[in-house]
Amino acid sequence: MGRRGDIVRSYMSAYGGGDHAGVAALLAEEVSWVVYGHTTFTGREAYLAEMRRAEEGGLPTVIADRYLEEGDAVFASGRVRAPLPGGGEVDLVFADVFTFEGDLIVRVESYLVPAG
Q: How many CA atoms lie within 13 A of 14 on its CB side?
């Protein structure tokens, strides 16, 4: 895995640990996060606001088990379990494509479906 793959691994660790500053340091100011079938968040502050909203029930458990790096993109897939604010949890599988400019993430495309 190259340098950008290592950055995505750091991102996954920071995201799962609720480390907003760690995630922010990896994102370009004008980052876009496309969650297919749901919505798009534009800008670092909107990205972090969505992280905070998703953590209202508690921190997620993120298990990324596959990474592929090519050119300016890194693919990561795995599973995420997140507690819900009203109780229970959501269990999803994900595939994310991270696009870079230099060492900063400028776009994240997320595909999320229920595990099972």
A: 17
